[in-house]
Amino acid sequence: MHVLSACPNLPEAAHTPLGSEVYRGLTARPKTLSPWLFYDARGSELFEQITELPEYYPTRTERSILSAHADQIVAAAAGCEELTMIELGAGTATKTGLLLKAAVRRQSEVTYHAIDVSGTALDEAKRRIEAELEGVAVVPRVGDYTQGLGQINADGQRRMVLYIGSSIGNFEPEDAVQLLRDIRKELRAGEKLLLGVDMVKDREILLKAYDDAAHVTAAFNKNALERINSELDADFNLNLFRHRARWNEECSRIEMHLESLIAQSVSIPALELEVKLQRGETIHTENSYKFRDEGVIGLLERADFHLSDHWTDEREWFGVYLATA
Ligand code: AVI
User: Fold this and answer.
1) pTM above 0.90?
2) Which of 274-281's residues contact partners 24+ apart within 8 Å by CB, and which partners?
3) Is residue 285 lining ligand 1, measured as CB closer than 6 Å?
4) Which of these, 42, 159, 219, 236, could form a disulfide with 225 (CB 3.0-4.6 Å)?
5) Which residue owns the Cα nearest ligand 1 atom 6?
6) CB 174 within 8 A of CB 300
7) Does any ligand 1 atom lie closer than 6 A to the CB of residue 97?
8) Using one digit for the tens of pLDDT, what is the confidence trace for 178-205?
9) ipTM for the assembly
10) Maximum Cα interatomic distance, the chain, rounded to a whole number of Å
């Protein structure tokens, strides 16, 4: 998150993380907004709905891989040691139970450190997992991804960091490598990373997953504008924007945009900013990179991990990669 600090004349709101990002993105050419803006309470709820849409295959495909191979994954990660699991961006941890169940079959007691920015999501995860899985202790940790990973004491056990859900695809390639390097730095040699990644596939399937018939993804995309309206007093008229999903073949990514249906001017009083949009101009709100095997291996190697094993589904739509530090 980049906060504008070198512009003392900007209003106070431009120095907050949200204001700074909106100011930067909407004065840039082309206009952009960072995908973290989606995730206020409403956006997180919409994302949960997306994961259950018929067109949005990633969540259920990853779940099917974890369900089919949980014992193998845990055995490969543990070797002859016992595991402590740490999940980055755990949310309500709906898929993680599959791995935890496999872990308690091996070692009877497992500690699971769940890291997320949402304390309520973590409370729900703790309540549900501890009620369903005897032998699992959930330690909720509210905060940003990698910070403090190294301080998580595993009592001599081997730590396995879970970064599932294909969130790595929402980072630009260089930022993805940096994130993996940050994780790697916190691990001792031999410790593990489990990475969930969405694979390149037929363009039509990808486009439908990001432009569903029920328009939930459209509402999720427009929620970024709704958030700017409510938190920065802006006057975006959501009906004057259209959700667009595009496949960018060259960069191997789905792009989400908000397209202005008319020439218009939007005012953001808290930032003392008037934003002019041409008819057809877009605000680029998200990239979701799709990978091939060699791309994932390249990312891992650049971050000083090596690939230990990998699992996929019948159609090879999603990949779960086990890497060793
Ligand atoms: C969170 N992330 C992995 C989702 C994705 O598929 O890139 C976010 C999302 N955007 C639109 N639909 C889902």
Assistant:
1) yes
2) 275/26, 275/27, 275/31, 277/31, 281/30, 281/31
3) no
4) 236
5) 288
6) no
7) no
8) 999 999 999 999 999 999 999 999 999 9
9) 0.99
10) 64
Report CA(106)–ligand 1 centroid distance (Å): 33
- Tally of CB atoms within 10 A around 177: 18
For the cut 90, the answer to whether the pLDDT of residue 9 exceeds it is: no
Backbone angles phi, psi at 242, to 5 degrees: -120, 135
pLDDT on residue 117: 86
Query: Which pLDDT tens digit goes with each residue over 233-247?
Result: 999 999 999 999 999
- For ligand 1, mutation pick of 164, 286, 317 (most atoms within 8 Å of CB): 286
Looking at ligand 1, which residue's alpha carbon is closest to its atom 11? Answer: 210
Instruction: Note the pLDDT of residue 118.
Output: 87
Q: Show the tokens assigned to 272.
A: 């003392």
Buried b (16+ CB within 10 A) or exposed e, 202-214: eeeebebbbbbee
Residue 5 has pLDDT above 70, yes or no: no
Atom 3, ligand 1: which residue's CA is nearest? 167
Consecutive H or E run containing 132: helix 119-132
User: Could you give the strand order of the β-sheet that contains 110-116, starting from the edge strand earlier in sequence?
Assistant: 136-142, 110-116, 83-88, 158-163, 192-198, 318-324, 306-312
From the alpha carbon of 254, which atom of ligand 1 is closest?
7
Decide if 67 contacts 98 (C-beta within 8 A): yes
